[in-house]
User: Fold these one by one.
Assistant:
Number 1:
Amino acid sequence: MEEQKLLFVYNAGSDFFSSLTDMAHKTFSPSTYQCHLCTLTFGKFSIKKEWKSFIDSLAIKSVFLYKNQF
């Protein structure tokens, strides 16, 4: 039986241009930003400490993908 995993998919691309555009969008127009998972998990430059602690506390492995990787 395969190990169970919790899969998260960001509604954003994984390439450099997408990352740069997303950072600007979150900064200048956060209410219209399309990736709610990005908003929940990341600040402007790095993962939120509270989110990392939560994920690390789970008893199941978590996998994060971007929509172009799914």
Note: Residues 41 and 47 are 6 Å apart (CA to CA).
Number 2:
Amino acid sequence: MTTPIGLSVADLIKAPLAMANLIIIVSGLIGGTLARFLFRGIDDDRAKGLALGLAAHAFGTVEAWQISHTAGRYAAFGLAVNGLVTAVWVPIFISALSI
């Protein structure tokens, strides 16, 4: 998920904001940096883009646009879906655990 969504969710579930911010940024940097290496045996740009959008959020989406327009579109879709699902389900899941 992107940093703004992640920090909002972290605030809702009372998680440390600095730690959430660090995890979000580092996961994006690592995913965007290692993408070309990890995808060397994968030929489908749709799969590359979706994986980058889901796992490496904005950094991954930028990397996907450098791979191809198809990968970029799928990365943007994955980023949006991941943000939506995380923003809706994580607070519900956390509140269910604390009951």
Note: The chain has five helices and no strands.
Number 3:
Amino acid sequence: MNDNQLLRYSRHILLPQINYEGQEALVNSHALIVGAGGLGSPVALYLAASGVGTLTICDFDVVDLTNLQRQIVHTTASVGINKAVSAQQTLFEINPTIQVNTVCVKSTEDEFALLLAQADIVIDCSDNFATRYLLNRLCVQLKKPLVSGAAIGFEGQVTVYDMRSDSSPCYHCLFPDQSETTGENNEMRCASNGVFSPLVGMIGTTQAAEALKLLMGIGESLQGRLLLLDALAMEWRTIKLSKDTACSVCS
């Protein structure tokens, strides 16, 4: 790190759990963020501000006026612009020392596999089940840690599937893909439902914290635990997760 980076990240470096080595690990890390909406906004903002050296942001959608109630990485001037590009513009204003790559088209499974292979961590901020199942399968195959979040209405959830560990459950363990047996379409988008604006910030910020900890190798991650938030009652609950020995994806 140069002198400018040492100053920029000094409040991290002062933390004994992070120190110079932890911050240097972030500077040399590459995070893949899938989705630049309600969850992806705080994830991208905090990872960029924290100094993650390379961010790749995937989103083929464009900014709509209805997004601005909660998707805080975008501004009114961003309406009509691709979300990944809009996020890139904002992140460069916050931290011009990092590299931000954009993927502005809907990726195929092979294309996602190439993106995942280049990343150290995957943060799933998507809004549909098809993408979640695909990212999970690829993370299992490539043994990549996956930070998963979801939010709808006043309720949200977040967990970590660290596929570098043989004992870690995967997304399919918790939410089996019903389309495998029923043929039902799992493309349903969460964005078509109402959502309390601070909720996505709370879940997304938690995802960012988990991603940073994993990249630095500090603390205890949410692997094996599902964190649930009821924002209307402002109550957090934790559910323990176990690997499904009959899982068709990871077992």
Note: The chain is about 35% helix and 20% strand.
Number 4:
Amino acid sequence: MSEMWHYSRRALMMKSSVIRETLKITQKPGIISFGGGLPASELFPTKELAEAAQKVLTEHGEKALQYGLTEGYLPLREMIAERASRQGINVSADEIMITGGSQQGLDMCGRVLLDWGDVVISARPTYLGAIQAFNAYFPKYVTLPSDDDGMTVDGLKEILETNDARMIYLVPTFQNPDGRTIPVHRRQRILEIAKTYGVPVIEDDPYSELFFEGTVPSPMKALDPDIVISLGTFSKLLAPGLRIAWLIAPPGVIDRFVRMKQGADLHTNTFAQYLIYEFAQNGKLDAHIKKVRELYSHRRNVMIEAMEHYFPDEVKFTRPNGGLFLWVELPAGVNTTTLLTKAVENSVAYIPGSAFYPEGGGDNTMRLNYSKPNETEIEEGIKRLAKLFKESLTKK
């Protein structure tokens, strides 16, 4: 009977995530995957979380297992506000809403800000998950190229003058997919232009606490809180399976998000919110993040050293100072989507870069993840990719 059903245009037009489909491929034994954005599961603090869960159930069981506020558990929101203040973001708990992962935060941005045909401005490349979330609201994308300092500003003013733009979407710090970071002076210029035209900036920030060296630029939310909606998450800092993240929006604006979320799911997992709050006490979360930084920094170094040693000279790649990803660019004419089939045959996988270009392009690029594979896998996986690259370049 289902073939007779009438589906919404949204359901008919939505496509499966390239990342999710690639992850299915990588389940076969022996595959070394640089494809997902998975944290290192060996770092999950399972013992400490079990202890925190027992305490929550013993001391707060009736409340932790009950319906909660749409805005989220107040002590957790207060904790997030305090942590944000360390980065120069001065907000109250009333400006924070807990979401079911950052992906729900992105979806809420689409629900609140986008109608059919509205323009989303982003970098190219940009985060595939955001493209997928916004696509449900049928926007038009206008993208600006990236250099070593992230999205360029040249042309932004002209785009805003000639398009009905509803948001500028950015991952300004250790961007997914390329690991680039927008410096403060460029952030300020973007915010100046956005404010002139009254267009909100969506600052997607899963990675700024995962820095390896140097200093992290001030968040865009700290530079101009009135024009920025900020997204953060515990997925990369603690454990993605808990699906706890947050959205910070200016007073008045946050109420619209709360009302939209009420219609979506009433509220986010109450127990998981209590659990994270309990775990974070007495500096445990900060100590855990320090361990994450140390391991990811080491694995990034192993990957870069292997790429320097094995990759052909024609292959370029970024050298991020934090986060989970780096970006590889091959000479024009090498198609990484086509090459992926050959890579999987050689038991190594990645995400083709074209998936991160909402307007098309990026056929000769790819995203690599260094947080999940161990050091031995990174070394061997880069060797396998280097062999494929050399074969492809020889055929050109």
Note: The chain has two domains: 2-45+286-395, 60-283.
